[in-house]
Amino acid sequence: MALRAAGAVAPADHRPATLSVQYLGVGAFGPAEAIVTPMKQGRSAWLMNVTLQQEGKVFLQAQVWTTNRSGGPVTAEARAPDVPPPSDLKTYREHMGAPPQHGFWRNFEGKPLRFVPPDAPRQAAPAVLREWYSFIDYDGGGDPFLDFARSVILLDTLVWPTHHRGLAEAPDYIAPSLDLTVWFHEPAGASEWLLVDGVADIAREGLIHGHSRIWTDDGRLVATGGSNLLHTPRR
Prior knowledge:
By secondary structure, this protein is mostly beta strands.
C-alpha cells in the first residue's frame, strides 16, 4: 500500500527505485490512511515519506525513491538459479488436494521445487527457499508500482518461512519484522511466475536476517531485498 501511495503522488513517468520500510506496529484488517510527503523533488529522482495509519495511530513508515532516468550502463552479471520452470512443477494446492487454510495464502499459487508434507518429520536443513509464485487474478495494467508490489509482498512475507524451514525443531518463538528494504531493477511485466531465491542464513543477538532475489521465468532479475526480524518468545 505504501508503494502504491507513493506512485499516486510521483510524476507520471516515474517508477520505483528503492523502498525502505519500518514497521511501527500491527495494522488491523480494514481501511488505512496513507499520507505521502515529498521530501526531495529532483529533475530525475523523487524521495517520498509515506506513513500508514489507522484511527490516528501510525503503524508503518516508509521512504520511497522514484526515478524516470533510463540511461547509463547496462550489466547483468547475476545469473538466475538453474531450477525447473514452473510449467514442470505442481502447485501446493495440487500437492495438498485443497486450498490453503489461511486466507492470505489464497492470493497466491506457489510451486515448490521439492514438496515436503506439513506432517513430515522435521529435519535440520539449510535455511534456503527457492519457489515459484504467481498472484491469482493479477493484472498490473502497465503500472510499474503495482508490478513491483508483487516482489515487495514476496520479499516481506517469506523471510520467516525461510528461517523456519532451517530448524530441526518447531520454534518456541515468533519473529515480527522490524524493517524491509527493496531495490528494484526492472519490472516483471508479462511474466506470470516469479522465482523467490532466498536465504535466512544468520541469526544473532536477537535478530534474524533474511534476503532474497526475485527472478522472472525468462531469467531477469526483478528485485533484491532483505529484512531483520526480532526474536520474540511466545507468551
